[in-house]
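Progress narrative, Year 2. Work on Trophoblast glycoprotein a from Zoarces viviparus advanced from sequence curation to structure prediction during this period.
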Amino acid sequence: MLDLAQRIVFCALLCSVYASCPPRCECSEAAHTVKCVSRDLRSIPTGIPGYTRNLFITGNQISRIGPESLKGLDNVTNLSLSNNRISEVESHTFAGLRSLRSLDLSNNQLAVVHPEAFTVQNQSLRELNLSRALYNHSSVMDLATSLRWSSLGTLKGLDLSHNGLIYLPSRIFSHLSNLRRLQLSNNSLVAIHNSTFSGLERLEELDLTLNALKTVPEEGLRELDSLPSADLLLGENPFTCSCGIEPFALWLNRSQGRIGDADGLVCAFPASMRNTSMLAVGSLTLGCHQWGAGAALVLQTSYVFLGIVLGFIGLVFLFVLYLNRKGIKKRIYEMRDAGRELWEGHHYRFEIDSDPRLSQASSSADV
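Result:
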């Protein structure tokens, strides 16, 4: 009889646990985990158990999330919403998840990111994954505003890889003062400008591999030097080893201790320099300085020669004027007299036309 009672209690507990799991989801109280993977869900399911710490809602058809989507999930620390085709994240969507430490929004289509989309109570968020998450590169302006307004002062890791980013707005990371890891690989960044990484003095890892950097000008080098503690990755960029690359090559040799893939950095263009180590470019003779010195000498010589020629022409002209001074003076007088006669003729004609008596006489003659 006791054994039967125990079985009934066990079944009741089992049924209650099963009943608390949302439809089309898998729940494990022991692992504090709920998974709703590839279930064609159109919204965040309701009835997620309060014990949930790890919540995986991935591979569904959820287009928008807002504050009402994640109510009552105070214990969730790891939330994955990847691959859901999410296009809009409203402000304070995650504000109720006061224990949230890791948020994965990768592989979505974020076109609208509201200013306080990533605000979390107690600023508990440590990891934010936005890899392959932005709908297009124009969404980066929304993202910049959200990173500024979402109170992410305790964020440690940010992944923005595989987003086709062409540029980064100035000071986009300035409010992420505690960021340690920044992933920017597999984008289309063509330059590093002043204030690109402003505010990231504590950064420890910066991945810029597989972008479109042909060189890093002095402005960009100063920006990278403003990250004194960061280990850098710069591989798989199409570096062009022409004269303009020399300051960058010299900087690489000076800073190779903090560049994790320095030995693997090679020239992509021109063809004659392809696969040449970037560390060797600084010591190679590209002909830049020699050409520049020679060109400067040639240019200076040309200026001197041109000055001599122009001076000689000027002297000849003055000499010709001197020899023909009488004829020139006579010609000037003749032009003056001709102009005076022309002026007097016009003046006389004007007086005739303006005399009313002459006008009346002319009218009577016509009658």
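The longest strand covers residues 33-37. The radius of gyration is 40 Å.
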